[in-house]
Amino acid sequence: MKILLLLGLVVLSECLVKVPLRKGESLRSRLRRQGLLGDYLNKHPYNPASKYFPTLAQASGEPLQNYMDIEYFGTISIGSPPQEFTVIFDTGSANLWVPSVYCSSPACNNHHKFNPQQSSTFQATNTPVSIQYGTGSMTGVLGYDTVQVGNIAVSSQIFGLSQSEPGSFLYYSPFDGILGLAFPGLASSGATPVFDNMWSQSLIPQDLFSVYLSSDGQSGSFVLFGGTDTSYYSGNLNWIPLTAESYWQITVDSVSINGQVIACSGSCQAIVDTGTSLIAGPPTPIANIQYYIGASQNSNGQYVINCNSISNMPTIVFTINGVQFPLPASAYVRQNQQGCTSGFQSMSLPTSSGDLWILGDVFIREYFVVFDRANNYVGMAPIA
Fold it and tell me: How far apart are CA 46 and CA 282, in angstroms?
């Protein structure tokens, strides 16, 4: 279960040749290393009028809409001709699914529905799929079709067509479905994630993607498939090894204020999750953090903060792989017309490696994050 809060193949001559890309390697270098550059140039002669050397695949950005600093979603299309849907790009799950005409739940009726009969490239299956999130669920059936994400067209992509979306959360959500970016092992019904197909179909130059989330409701958020953008962060990326290949799971050394450890003493496991709005953790350490930042629980169970106190509130430091990642009060206090609330939430997510913490959007907004599948690392650097 995950929480969702409201929140290569190179074509040469007549054959297909799988040519792996090494980290940081250009496509031109890749072809030269494999002895294929001459063949490619014969088939695709260089145009002197062109500024850039032609490539077989380029990094592609998917713009994300910032919905009140709560959720970030972008538009994809499925089918031929394309049918458009807004989806959460979620590193905490691994399935792609959208509402379908097979669904009569109020949540489906309030969103765009995929109609297989209107797509000439759709392939049906009888395989069921069921996904449970922290604040919603869906059941449905799997199918295959072309999925367009940014400038990338993924052929024969397996995805879920919802038949039931119970409850009120998905009814009121401003997005239609979810596109999971976690590892295949986390996917329900063994469905291959979209990103895995992007790489296996040689649609991107590097086996990684990166994320920038804007603050204060501003535009400009994106997922960049197959590359990074140095203009969005300062300094160097700090590479953090993964401790599991399901979620994007890492080790947090400690959580501290002014050098005093207040949570995660002796380290803890955390996942970097674009599909969760807040920072979540086990009840006891989260309660400790709420105490130290002066948050008190109101009658609705929310942890509220005096908005006038923000300038005097402490910076919370997450030490990860020996590097400090500070989180100022301006980042972890959520402000709206109703007042100010804490960006930390208590939640139990038990796994074989203990209760997981979730570094959600509250954390990610402060850091440009690279999700590196080739080397099983997460890279982080302060936003520029």
Answer: 57
